[in-house]
């Protein structure tokens, strides 16, 4: 049983690594590095997924892409899990009202995944977030606001087992994350002051399900000068209004 669970976990990590790669595909070495699996093991598992149609490999470049069978499975799952239809209007309105890039992300376990992006009219943008990007809870503004509205016991459990500092530096140790959680709860929205990429700021408001649990987040990102303290109140209220509207629609 343990071996079967381990294999499923490995295959899931491989699929996520390919999905999170650039539009021109990923190499076997890229996937091995991302998943921390031996290259030979990675290649064998990638080939097995390709046989099932879950992955596809370009014969000329050797790069890996998601396969056609995932599209078929995705369309079947969309009727139950697709929330982008309701969220698209909120993302578009935020982009139009602010000029910034707007996003909708959903929680998937210990991560947030970006599902939608809409760019506003302001010509300078941040490209930290993109559709399909995944970040651990507590890192980007979406992950921070989702984490902030979990129960205290769940937050404690997450911060005990998730060490964010190796990849995201000491600015993401447990004490620093807890401090940002407190500020988020006080304001109602989260702020990421360039902690992932210097000069690239983000703000987010949580979207809740019918039970009151944070299901995802609406986010605005841009350059630092567009997120000065005097403007954050305006942006925060816009985010909260749309997050409230979307929460009601999804519930």
Automatic annotation (TrEMBL):
One example of a Gene Ontology biological process annotation: negative regulation of DNA-templated transcription
Keywords associated with the record: DNA-binding, Transcription, Transcription regulation
SMART domains xref list: HTH_ICLR
Superkingdom of source: Bacteria
Record has DNA-binding as a keyword: yes
PANTHER family: HELIX-TURN-HELIX TRANSCRIPTIONAL REGULATOR, ICLR FAMILY, HTH-TYPE TRANSCRIPTIONAL REGULATOR RV1719
Protein name: IclR family transcriptional regulator
Native species: Mumia zhuanghuii
Organism lineage string: Bacteria, Bacillati, Actinomycetota, Actinomycetes, Propionibacteriales
């Amino acid at each position: 049983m343990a071996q079967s669970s381990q294999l499923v976990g490995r295959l899931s990590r491989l699929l996520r690594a390919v999905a999170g790669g650039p539009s021109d595909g990923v190499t076997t070495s890229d996937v091995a590095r991302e998943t921390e699996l031996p290259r030979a093991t990675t290649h064998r598992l990638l080939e097995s997924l390709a046989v099932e149609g879950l992955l596809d490999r370009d014969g000329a470049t050797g790069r890996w892409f998601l396969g056609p069978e995932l599209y078929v499975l995705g369309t079947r799952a969309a009727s139950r899990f697709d929330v982008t239809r309701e969220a698209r209007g909120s993302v578009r309105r935020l982009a139009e009202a602010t000029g910034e890039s707007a996003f909708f992300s959903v929680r998937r376990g210990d991560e947030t995944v970006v599902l939608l992006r809409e760019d506003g009219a302001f010509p300078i943008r941040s490209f930290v977030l993109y559709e399909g990007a995944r970040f651990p809870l507590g890192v980007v503004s979406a992950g921070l606001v989702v984490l902030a509205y979990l129960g205290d016991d769940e937050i404690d459990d997450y911060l005990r087992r998730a060490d964010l500092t190796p990849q995201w530096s000491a600015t993401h140790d447990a004490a620093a994350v807890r401090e940002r959680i407190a500020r988020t709860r006080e304001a109602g929205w989260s702020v990421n002051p360039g902690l992932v990429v210097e000069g690239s700021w983000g703000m987010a408001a949580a979207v809740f399900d019918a039970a009151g649990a944070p299901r995802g987040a609406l986010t605005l990102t841009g350059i630092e000068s567009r997120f000065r303290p005097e403007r954050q109140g305006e942006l925060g209220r816009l985010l909260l209004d749309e997050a409230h509207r979307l929460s009601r629609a999804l519930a």
